[in-house]
Amino acid sequence: MADYFSIAESAVVAVVRDHLDNKAVYFTKPAKQITKSDDSVLGEGFEYFFITYPGAFPVVPQGVGVIEVTWMIGVDIFTRFTNYPDTWKRFKAFRSDVFNLFDVNKIGRNLDRTPGVRDVLLSSDSEVVGVGEEDSPADPIFFKQSLQLAVYFKVNRE
After folding, report:
1. Phi and psi dihedrals of 138, rounded to 5?
2. Alpha helices in the chain (DSSP H)
């Protein structure tokens, strides 16, 4: 039996690694900066991170033998803090490129034609926060925002 969440999550990681606008600006070591559920890499000195986490998965029947699963993938994006004007500018550019990849670009909306993926939507209901050694906004190391990717995935039942 297939692990459909892992298929969706791996496709998200591959699309970010291969198709994000300005990826060379953001990722010098994509294998360390674009990770699945591994925030231990934050201490490795890179400027940007894209980290995925498993989320909910509502299921809707689509007819005999077919369901649509909305794989919710949590994503935390990080931009290393330098000073407030520069960090805000870099963070907004990074977030804009992530938004455009998944909500505007066809490659992101279908996860580069991953079989079963019908659509992808990116959203966030959280504010940008400063993350520091003690999670102190007064002395941030990163600006971070939590995003949600909804991957609409058709699954054939046996």
Report:
1. -75, -25
2. 4-19, 23-26, 30-33, 84-103, 106-109
For residue 131, what is the DSSP state? Answer: E
CA-to-CA distance for 95 and 97, rounded, in angstroms?
5
CA nearest neighbour of 4 among 104, 116, 131, 89: 116
Interacting residues of 101 by C-beta distance below 8 A, sequence separation 6+: 15, 16, 19, 20, 21, 107, 108
Q: What percent of the chain has pLDDT over 70?
A: 96
pLDDT of residue 132: 81
The first and second tokens of residue 85, run together, are: 């004007």
Q: Does domain 4-156 have CATH number 3.30.2000.10?
A: yes
- Which residue carries 């925030």 as its tokens? 39
The average pLDDT across 4-11 equals 97
Q: How far is CA 151 from CA 8, 15, 29, 96, 109, in A?
A: 7, 13, 26, 19, 9
